[in-house]
Design brief:
It is a single chain. This protein is mainly α. It has two domains: 31-138, no CATH class; 141-289, no CATH class. It has ten helices and two strands; from the N terminus they run H-H-H-H-H-H-E-E-H-H-H-H. It has helices at residues 5-41, 43-65, 70-89, 93-110, 116-137, 143-168, 183-205, 212-239, 255-277, 282-287; strands at residues 172-174, 178-182. Helix 2 (43-65) packs antiparallel against helix 3 and helix 5 packs across helix 9 (255-277). The longest helix has 37 residues, at 5-41. It is globular, with a radius of gyration of 20 Å. The termini are far apart.
């Protein structure tokens, strides 16, 4: 049974969505420009950009889970992430990992009982992003191209999944966790991302240097994991009954909301590249097949 107020509510929701579109587009353009600018600059600018992003994620995570000693937990984690970045920049990934684990343990110790595991997990989550992107960009060979390819994969997945889902519709992918995502959006997004990533590499390093099937397969699987990162954060927000991680980014919510898929994808490709060619050549190991 419907009521007369439902059309008005739907119209209000639609109007609110349209009014939010301008800030959302503007914020998106600024974020993409900042990310690309840091990638192009490399070095300290790139590292500081991603340190700031990881600190924002840490702050949002601690606020999201709530509990006592929120500020203290953040500052202990802040110190840990600074140590992680310092060691990673100086090509000491083992020490960066030790610092990350020690920082997570320290934050867990500071937290109240019942919040310790969640508090420490936030440091691991934020630090995993920081280690992965710095490791990729600092690669001796193909550092720039590796991160550019990762950007192309994650951004194309998000954009094309949105439009694919809106235009095609159909069955929901996992309605209990993320009610808006559809199978059509998932397939359009991940396939488009694999193709876009392959085209970006062809443009950056030349067709002769890009293997077709391995790069397409890797791109598709990375895009799938990116979607998985969205579900991971959606599940976390549902667990703590929070709609957005924060309101730092107009029209987008928080930094966690924008980087959830990118974080999981970055960790995956950093591991793949490091296993194949070592941590100093992670991007080369990622792209050279």
């Amino acid at each position: 049974m419907t009521t007369g107020s439902e059309p008005a509510e739907a119209a209000a929701a639609s109007k609110s969505s349209m009014s939010d579109l301008g800030p959302r587009i503007a914020s998106g353009i600024v974020m993409i420009a900042a990310a690309l600018g840091s990638l192009w600059a490399g070095g300290h600018i790139f590292n500081l950009f991603w340190l700031a992003a990881s600190l924002a994620i840490l702050w949002e995570w601690q606020k999201l889970i709530g509990g006592a000693h929120e500020r203290r937990r953040f500052f202990v984690g802040f110190a840990a992430l600074l140590a992680v970045a310092t060691f990673e920049v100086n090509r000491a990934p083992e020490m960066a990992l030790v610092s990350l684990l020690a920082g997570a343990a320290a934050v867990a110790y500071v937290a109240e009982p019942g919040k310790r595991l969640w508090s420490g997990a936030g440091v691991i989550y934020a630090g995993a992003l920081l280690i992965s992107v710095i490791l990729l960009r600092a690669s001796i060979i193909r550092g720039f191209e590796g991160v550019a390819w990762l950007f192309a994969i994650v951004w194309t997945t998000d954009i094309m999944a949105y439009f694919g889902g809106r235009l095609i519709g159909g069955p929901k992918l996992w309605p209990r966790v993320s009610p808006k995502k559809t199978w059509s959006g998932f397939l359009v997004g991940t396939i488009s991302a694999a193709l876009c990533g392959w085209l970006v590499l062809r443009a950056l390093i030349g067709p002769a240097e890009v293997s077709v099937l391995p790069i397409l397969a890797l791109g598709w699987f990375t895009a799938v994991l990116s979607q998985g990162g969205d579900f991971l954060e959606s599940g976390l927000k549902r667990r703590f009954s929070v709609k957005d991680a924060s309101h730092l980014i107009p029209g987008h919510g928080g930094v966690m909301d924008r980087l959830d898929g990118f974080l999981v994808a970055a960790v995956f490709v950093a591991i793949v590249g490091s296993v194949r060619y070592g941590s100093n050549q992670a991007a080369h190991g990622l792209l050279n097949w």
